[in-house]
Structures are given as structure tokens and as C-alpha cells.
Amino acid sequence: MYNQLRVEFYKLKTSFVFYGFLLFFVILGISYGVLKLAPIGETGYDVFSDTVGDTSLMFTLTLFVSYFIGNDFSTRTIQNEIQIGYSRLSAMLVRMIVVLPATALFHLTYVFSTMLTVTAINGFGTEISVRDMLIKTVLVIIQVMAVQSFTILIMFICKKNTLGTVISIIFTSITCNILRNYLGEENVLFKFTSFYRIMMNSKPMTANELSISFLSAFITLIVVLYVTHIAFRRTEIK
């Protein structure tokens, strides 16, 4: 498994797609800050609160996960690993360990590039709570990874790049955009799912609500990855 992990990290750090996504989110954050948020008087802290829980770009993270895993099926990398003796569990875990933190990094790149851009123009603001920012950042990292664990599940079930990508994007768009817009705070159960996010509320969440959201996201992540392992273990590899 260690050798597999080294290979996956090497693929990531030498991937033009990975750096292309990073650059995309940097440019997007700067443009959004300059053209939209700074002109209306937002401060850096306001922007952090607005963007850290933004789910509108979740489908772009899904594209990356689909590409990263789907490409390994298309090139038969995963199939070859299994044929030479690596377990299906390790084939799944090494990709999970690499790709899920990458999606969280993309999201935070967008958040902080937007925040720093607006801060440079309008300042950070007087309402500063480092502890509050840290808690929300950690929570959203878990939530982003929980959402993208569903993409991993879909890709390991489909084992095909195009089909898995289409299904994953449809799933993410429905859960993170359509359901969020129609349900939102109106549905208590949906409010605490990974598809909703912490900052989509009209009022700040209490400590108990933040704890529930964290547990919900963490449990979702573990359960979906377990289901992925079970499903992949029972599927035929050709």
C-alpha cells in the first residue's frame, strides 16, 4: 500500500490537471472578489463567511475526482494493481487519501483567494474571530470530503470514466444545488447534511448545531467509503 500511495501522490503533484484546477480557483476567487464582492463594500471576514459554505462550485470538484479515478480505470491501472496482488481495499484507500484532501484544497483555494482579494481592497473588517474561522474551515473540509466520497462510490461502481462522471455531476448538482435551494433551512434533516453547508443559514449555527453537522459529515464519509469497499469488492474486474 505504501508504494501505491507514493505513486498516487506522484501522479497528483505532476498532474497538469491538478495545477489547472488550482489556477482556476485562484482566478475565480480573485475575479469574484474584484468584480462582485469588493464593489458592494464586503470585507475580508464577510467574504470568508459568504464563500466558505458555498456549494455552487461543488460540481467542479466532482469533475476532478471523476477524472482522477476514472482515468485509472480507463488506463487499467487499478485492474493491473489487483492482478499483481494488491487488495481492492488498498486500491480504493490510496486514491481516497490523495483525492479527497485535494478537493478540500481546491475549495479553500477559492475561499481564501476571494477573501484575500477583498481584504486587499476593503480591509478585513472589525469582526475578527480566528477560532470561529478555524472551526468553520475544519467543518467544511469534512463536509466537502463527505460529498466527494459519493463520487468515489459512483466511480468505483461504474468503473467507466464517462458514465461515472455524468452520474456524479448529476448527483452533486441535485444534492448540493437543487435540493439546497428547495429545502435549505426548511428541512431540519437536510440542514445538517454535508450537502447543505454551515454558512447557508440566515443566522449563525450554535455550538450544538455545529457539532451535529460535524458528526453527520464524518459519519457520512465513513459509511460511504465502507459501502464503496463492499460494492467494489463484489464487482467483477475485467
Rounded to the nearest angstrom, the distance between the terminal CA atoms is 22 Å
* Low-confidence segments: none
Number of domains: 1
What value does the average pLDDT take? Answer: 87
**Helix run count:** 10
Write down the Rg: 19 Å
- One letter per element, helices H and strands E, the order comes to HHHHHHHHHH
* Main sheet specs: none
Shape: globular
- Quaternary structure: single chain
Structural class by secondary-structure content: mainly alpha
Strand content: under 5%
What's the total count of β strands? 0
Helix content: over 70%
Structural notes for this entry:
The protein is mainly α. It is built from ten helices and no strands. α4 packs antiparallel against α6, α6 (88-122) packs antiparallel against α7 (130-158) and α7 crosses α8. The chain starts with a helix and ends with a helix.
SSE arrangement:
Blueprint: H1 2-13, H2 16-37, H3 44-51, H4 58-74, H5 77-83, H6 88-122, H7 130-158, H8 161-182, H9 188-191, H10 207-234
Helix pairs in contact: 1-6, 2-6, 3-6, 4-6, 4-7, 4-8, 6-7, 7-8, 7-10
Q: Which tags fit this structure?
A:
single chain, 238 residues, mainly alpha, 0% strand
